[in-house]
Amino acid sequence: MTAAMFLKFASVSFQRQIAYRFDYFVAVLNGFLYVFIFTSVWRVVFTKAGGEHGGFTTESIVTYAVIAMVIRISFSMDDTALPGKVRDGSVAVDLIRPMPFHAMNLAEAMGYSAFHFIARGIPILAVSALLFPVRIPADHLPLALVSLALAYLILFMLNFAVGLLAFWYIEIFPFMLLKYGLLNLLSGGIVPMDFFPAAVRPFLAFLPFQHIFYTPASIIIGHANGALAIEMVAEQAAWVAVMGAVCALAWRAGQNKLVIQGG
Amino acid sequence: MGTIEYAIEAHHLKKQFTVSESGKGLWGSVKALFSAKTRIVDAVNGVSFAIRPGEFVGYVGENGAGKSTTIKMLTGILVPSSGTARVNGVVPYEDRKKNGMNIGVVFGQRTQLWWDLPVRETYEMLRVIYRVPKNGFDETMKKLSAALDLGPLMEMPVRKLSLGQRMRCDIAASLVHRPGVLFLDEPTIGLDVLAKENIRTFLKDLNKTDGTTIILTTHDMNDIEQLCRRLIILDKGIVIYDGATEDLKQRFVHDKLIEVEFHEPPDGLALVPELLVVRESGTKKWLKFQNGNSGIAAAIGKLASMYPVKDLSVREPSVESIIRAIYEKTVLLPEHKDAP
Lengths: 263, 340
Fold this sequence. Notes:
Number of helices of chain B: 11
Structural class of chain A: mainly alpha
Strand content of chain A: under 5%
Number of helices of chain A: 11
Strand content of chain B: 25-35%
Largest sheet of chain B: 6 strands, mixed
Strand order of the largest sheet of chain A: 1-2
Number of strands of chain B: 13
Oligomer: heterodimer
Order of helices and strands of chain B: EHEEHEHEHHHEHEHEEHEEEHEH
Distance between the termini of chain A: 28 Å
Radius of gyration of chain A: 19 Å
Number of strands of chain A: 2
Shape of chain B: globular
Largest sheet of chain A: 2 strands, antiparallel
Low-confidence stretches of chain B: none
Shape of chain A: globular
Low-confidence stretches of chain A: none
Radius of gyration of chain B: 25 Å
């Protein structure tokens, strides 16, 4: 896969998103709504709790809610594309091409996400910064960018691995529901890990989910810093390696299982 | 690419699929949740053949005979359950990407064009994917565009193309990188007569001038008769015929039907012993050639010298009727010997 190929696939995927204009406006409104709901809920909860809980202040939890939501929006991927292609057999067309399947999927995901980052993530961040006290310390930015990149890869590989289940099961909707549930609950996209009971947190360390939104959001807002932040990024890198291996094995096994639907 | 003896080789290729069977009705579906009964289907059951560079081979069989499954193993999409295959010396399912550079594939039932892009941009994507140098690409596109009349379609989005237009664009897409081997999986499906004819002319020319090895699966026996010198017939996952299309027709020379119109209806049914009357109506008789010491021409000559013949025509059996007869087991082919 050359860089030119990667860019081609990413840009086609990006352009495709522009075509769905109505979806776009609904999605922007939806994003604002979520930011508004979460910031309002945290504000009320924190006021009742005396303005401080789990290492967050009212101000920092509002910033966390905004940043986590902007990351979630910017990390939008079409996770139904791969299982859809397997279901209707058009994955055959991808496979006749002399290019690595995972890289092609990553390129398409990145084109898709790039659109949502530019068209939704940035405006929602800008408007939220005007409405709420969003504080982002600049000194964590390099590490935060590394963390974001690793988080993106973890989410992509999670989607890819779950999508590959379509090679075994034609209908993978139940697995997708399970994935959405785990992501909502355990990724830090809504509730930061600090608010989980102390007894549960060690178990969460055995799962990749918290490294998708919690780790990058915490580093960006400076909630996690210093040695802790570096340790979290190292864990992310380890998860990237583990999930990469899982995806590679699943892909190899899946190829033997593949059935092309519809002749 | 050095000289290789065979462009495509298949050795005892097998592909088994596991099919889960759910029982009948609601209760059956519920039961299937807990004890999934599975059945193994041999889609391709030990197929062997070898195709030399530059051959144009028809690969036919009824639905479910295993044609498409074979093609998908040769193109690296599916991994065989057992057996081996080589395309241009590359094992397709082991080195899918390398194989991809050497082959072109057209699936009649689905498009490889980008649904939401204009046709021209699809080719640009393919140019990048196959790493075709810009000037070579321009030259190829010019040729393809002229031969397949793509000019008016170039700026159209793929989703607005008619089936015939789309197929022309798809065929061009499979040739952007000038592959040595072309797999065509039902490329004329659903097309009208004129569109089919245009595509046949193009393929014939491609095979002749570029020496492209072509393997074609189709249900349209006119495709086979006009294009393929060699025919491989598949039935229930095994090869039941592999030989020249012409030889197959020769075997059925006895099925040639002779239609004779006489000036006056001759008396009696037996005209000449070599010709069997199968039907008659008024001054017309339909005859079939039976074994005789001399050939069919001599028998006809004899007939014409003895009776007042007004008009006479000989109809060859179509490949379609031959193949139908093979499937219906009304004729038996001699034991097929596997290719190397």
